[in-house]
Specification:
Layout lengths: L3 E5 L9 H12 L7 H9 L9 E5 L2 E10 L2 E3 L2 E3 L1 E9 L8 H15 L4 E4 L6 H6 L3 E3 L3 E7 L3 H5 L9 E2 L23 E2 L3 H10 L5 E5 L3 E10 L2 E11 L6 H15 L3 E7 L14 E4 L4 E5 L15 H4 L3
Parallel strand pairs: 6-7, 14-15
Antiparallel strand pairs: 1-2, 2-3, 3-6, 4-5, 4-11, 7-17, 8-17, 9-15, 9-16, 10-13, 12-13, 13-14
């Protein structure tokens, strides 16, 4: 590799390199499938929040590394905060050991600063954490908890050891037509959380869904769950919750969970979240059990204007599940 360069992907001149991105990504993650150019365009270029920040490593015109971040506005006490969230990160095996990933992080930070981004977030694997820490990122260990509510049945008891297996989401077979309401963003106090919009939810879950999802709502709550399995146990994993009322009402929430269990015939209902999620302290009394999560979280503040020293990130599956 004699012509390695790192620069931001330019959709006007680099479209011919998308196929090489898809191949390098497949081989880097050891996937047994290719994503499509349609997926690339949907995920990185067509979000209603704006085109992703896309630092890319090229070997001539072949893409051998990427560290892409999606535009992901946050909200804190009514203040909108410009932020970005990781969309993709890899360095192909043929290009490793050359310091590419660290340089891709640096370019992402530089581009983010140029675009007036205040906060960068990432959910790295454990092997990558030290690289982020050495680049000035703040790492919050054990920041995400996996809350699990099992259905008491012979099947669950018989396959109890499957709880140790990883959750595997079902693949989507078609687009969705979920009718979302405009998010109310109730319950939050001084936490930092995603500033989701109806357009964003439609883009994320309807246009090109990356898993099997279900959308349910009543007068008090609206949820989206991923459907999958943990060994022989079927699981519905709540990744989005919006409370339509000012206060959290336990009764309609429990009814919605019961409906989710029945409609999906699930053995397990799960709800991963950070310790600053508004209903975290209520989960045990709602019948959920706390399990450790392998999700790691770190962030970097690029501009601390209007931000307090203590940042309480309210995170849920909508934030940290890849797609």
């Amino acid at each position: 590799m004699k012509n390695l360069t790192i620069r931001d992907f330019d959709k006007k001149i680099d479209s011919s390199s998308i196929d090489s991105f898809l191949l390098s990504r497949k081989e880097s993650h050891n996937h047994n499938y290719y994503d499509s150019p349609e997926w690339f365009k949907w995920k990185f270029l067509d979000s209603p929040n704006g085109t992703a920040i896309m630092p890319t490593a090229f070997d001539d015109k072949k893409i051998v590394g990427a560290n892409y971040y999606g535009i992901y506005p946050l909200l804190k006490n009514g203040l909108e905060i410009s932020a970005i969230l990781p969309y993709e990160a890899f360095v192909h095996q043929s290009a490793q050991g050359k310091g590419l990933f660290k340089n891709l992080i640096k370019l992402a930070e530089q581009t983010a600063q140029d675009e007036k981004v205040h906060i960068m977030m990432s959910f790295p694997n454990k092997k990558s954490i030290q690289g982020f820490k050495s680049s000035g990122w703040t790492y919050i260990p054990n920041s995400v908890t996996y809350w699990l509510k099992p259905v008491i049945s012979f099947k669950v008891i018989k396959n109890i050891l499957d709880l140790k297996k990883a959750f595997q989401p079902n693949k989507s077979t078609e687009s969705n037509n979920f009718q979302f309401g405009e998010p109310k963003h109730n319950l939050y106090k001084d936490q930092i959380h995603g500033l989701w919009s109806k357009e964003y939810l439609n883009w994320r879950f309807n246009i090109l869904p990356q898993a099997e999802y279900i959308h349910l709502q009543n007068k008090s709550f609206e949820i989206v769950a991923r459907i999958g399995s943990r060994g022989k146990l079927k699981e519905a994993q709540i990744i989005y919750l919006d409370c339509k009322t000012v206060d959290f009402n336990r009764k309609p929430f429990k009814k919605l969970i019961k409906q989710l269990t029945k409609v999906t015939s699930s053995d397990l209902i799960s709800f991963p979240m950070s310790s600053h999620y508004p209903i975290y302290e209520k989960m045990k009394s709602l019948g959920f059990y706390k399990l450790p999560s392998g999700t790691q979280f770190c962030y970097k503040v690029l501009d601390d204007k209007n931000l307090s020293e203590e940042l309480k990130f309210s995170l849920c599956g909508l934030d940290f599940h890849t797609y």
